[in-house]
Amino acid sequence: MTNIYDKINDMDFDTDSIELNDIEKEKMFRNAKSYAKKTNKNKLIASAAAALLIAGLMTPPVRAEVLKFTTDIKVSMMDAFGASPDSYKYITELDESVKVGDDSFVIEDIAFEDNKAFINTLRDSDGSKESQLSENEACVYKIVVDGVTYKALGSSRSSGLLEDGKTISEVSMINFDKEFPTLNNADVDLYYTNGNSTKIISTKASTNTVNEENVIFAKDQKLKNRSVISLMKLNPITMTAIIKNLETDYYYQIEGTNNEGKTLLLDERINENGEVTFIYNKDFSDMTLDEIKNADIINFVLKGTRINKESGKEINGEYKTIEEFTYKK
Predict the structure, then answer these.
(1) Is 42 helix (H, G, I), strand (E, B) or coil?
(2) Are 118 and 111 in contact (CB under 8 A)?
């Protein structure tokens, strides 16, 4: 199957839409997860996490007018994504209004880790759940850092409606074809597309410097089910786990509990032939990144729910225990 981002990178932007067959569409939706609503102390409601889709995949409602969005509202990466207060050293604030095709939004800030970029944005909303799951949104198809191009391979997004009922706060995690370099004050260009419209946002940003503060929880650790934790790490941006040799017909998550009974959750974000990347979900975690970092013992449980190969949907949505392992400082 052709990756949707391969199609974007190869397309002629005079083209009005990209056609995917039913299997390709189903695969895109398999990369998405739905969250139940949950109010938290950061005044966000975790309502959805969806794969970014460009215009043309389905038949999205077209916005009739340009959104009149202001930059009066500020949402930090810490509020939106659960980053540590120490993340300010590695996050670039843009606070820039952008219009790409029919989509208007504000880029709050951006951060880079390994081959991933995290982009925090704000959008207007009518308060409906449908507006939070809109498919007619611009997406980043490549990033250029000091003249070198990094192509987007895929993306997932967590979003929530703010207390004002009129603003959607979302964080997109985009994975690229190679790791970003470790640079301070690099020239960074974000290439957005929406249908046949494109936009370049240029800024100065540090890339991948956050790994200077990595705390390693596991590396090349073999599990009983023959899977291997290639890496589990935490830094001020997020917590990440990469596990390989997993069965491909499951959705996975990792739950953790410290000796005080407080919990954390790592969601599946990328699954490439059984190598799964998990990312910290602050809306379903009792523990902050700093609390996880300072914990003496954390008991982890890898869980999975089987996917129906025909429909691409979870069979029953119930997660069963796949493996257990413990971290001790």
Answers:
(1) coil
(2) yes
H/E/C letters for each residue in 278-294? EEECHHHCCCCHHHHHH
H/E element holding 30? helix 22-30
SS3 of 241-266 = EEEECCCCCEEEEEEEEECCCCEEEE
Q: Give the C-alpha distances (Å, rounded to integers) separating 166 from 73, 122, 158, 237, 299.
A: 11, 10, 17, 27, 39
Mean pLDDT across 315-322: 84
Answer whether 246's CB lies under 8 Å from 252's CB. Answer: yes
The answer to whether the predicted template modeling score (pTM) of the entire model surpasses 0.85 is no
Look up residue 85 and give its two tokens.
């207060």
pLDDT, tens digit, for every residue of 213-238?
999 999 999 999 899 999 999 999 99
Using CA atoms, how far residue 49 sits from 162, 189, 243, in Å, is 15, 25, 21
DSSP 39: B
Rounded Cα distance between 49 and 27, Å, is 15
